[in-house]
Amino acid sequence: MDLLDDDEPRPDVDTPGVPPSLGRAIEEWLAQLKTTDEEIAAFLGWTVEKIRGYR
Fold it and tell me: What is the residue extent of each domain of the chain?
């Protein structure tokens, strides 16, 4: 699987109320190169421009 940050280790994030396995699945989905900015924006309810600023 091609990821945006294959060379950088990702820190574990603790999100209260989100099971760790779901958090890992979402992180993997977000990091995949094939996941578009538009898909992420729709999922989060953010603008595409805001997503591009964070990626």
Answer: 1-55
Place of tokens 């091609």: 2
Q: What is the pTM of this model?
A: 0.67
pLDDT one-digit tens code per residue, 1-55: 555 555 666 566 677 899 989 988 998 999 898 999 999 999 999 999 999 998 7
* Amino acid letter for position 30: L
State whether the Cα torsion 19-21-22-27 is positive or negative: positive
**Phi-psi domain of 32 (left: phi exceeds 0; alpha: psi -120 through 50; beta: other):** beta
